[in-house]
Write a structure and sequence with these properties.
Organism: marine metagenome
Strand content: 15-25%
CATH class of the largest domain: Alpha Beta
CATH architecture of the largest domain: Alpha-Beta Barrel
InterPro entries: 4Fe4S-binding_SPASM_dom, Aldolase_TIM, Radical_SAM_PqqE_MftC-like, rSAM_sf
Distance between the termini: 20 Å
Radius of gyration: 19 Å
Largest sheet: 4 strands, parallel
Number of helices: 8
CATH superfamily of the largest domain: Aldolase class I
Protein name: 4Fe4S-binding SPASM domain-containing protein
Structural class: alpha/beta
Pfam families: SPASM
Oligomer: single chain
Order of helices and strands: EHEHEHEHEEEHHHH
Number of domains: 2
Length: 225
């Protein structure tokens, strides 16, 4: 990413809980010191393994975006003390330092059913009808890298059923501009979502509206050339 002067967002999670990753704070500090250029470094956690020490390390790591999704059986419950401690640290950081940290805290029901993760979610295998789903822009704007360097299409393919290469064998830019990813993009541009194994049973709604939205189609075409 440094080699290509990357500018954008880097998420330190993918259908996972990053706070249980060994040496996670070393990874965060390395990334934020190596790749600067005004990037957004986003960290998302469910807060279960959060404690005061981890909160302090998060704030010191150099990331500038933290999202805490609290999965609760009662949405009227107060935020846990450990989450409030994180908020206090972020507030203090934003007053004292030039580098600001965005913090979002969301309450979500533990029984909430989300998307079907390309048919792999245990509590939701079936997708919404295709007419409900709009054009999907994910392969044009992001990709997923697992801990072993395997490249996946997007976060909807939670188990990376379709791999596009490995960073141990290829450069990221070569995979991003490679023929396999471009095949998926071209099929989506043609409205052929059902022809792609990973995408055909995925109920990610895509962009609002249908593929026939000519303005959206033109914008996507221009930015992907």
């Amino acid at each position: 990413l440094k080699e290509i002067n990357y500018r954008g967002r880097i998420n330190f999670y993918n259908n996972s809980e990053p706070l249980i990753t060994k040496n996670i704070f070393e990874y965060l500090e390395y990334a934020t010191k190596t790749i600067k250029n005004g990037n957004e470094f986003r960290f998302m956690t469910n807060g279960i393994s959060l404690n005061n020490s981890k909160s302090e390390n998060l704030v010191k790591s150099g990331i500038n975006s933290i999202i805490v999704n609290l999965y609760l059986d009662d949405l009227t419950k107060d935020f846990p003390e450990k989450v409030m401690y994180l908020k206090e640290l972020v507030d203090a950081n934003n007053i004292e330092k030039n580098t600001k940290i965005s913090l979002e805290i969301h309450k979500r029901l533990i029984t909430e059913v989300l998307c079907n993760k390309s048919g792999d979610a245990p509590n939701k295998h079936e997708a919404y009808p295709m007419y409900f789903r709009g054009f999907c822009i994910q392969p044009f704007t992001r990709l997923v890298i697992d801990p072993n360097g395997i490249i996946g299409l997007c976060c909807m393919d939670a188990f990376i059923k379709k791999s596009f290469g490995n960073l141990n064998d290829s450069k990221l830019i070569d995979i991003w501009e490679g023929s396999e990813l471009n095949h998926y993009r071209n099929e989506l541009l043609q409205g052929n979502r059902t022809k792609l194994d990973v995408c055909s049973n995925c109920d990610y709604y895509g962009c609002d509206g249908s593929f026939n939205n000519s303005i959206l189609k033109k914008i996507v075409y221009e930015i992907t050339q």
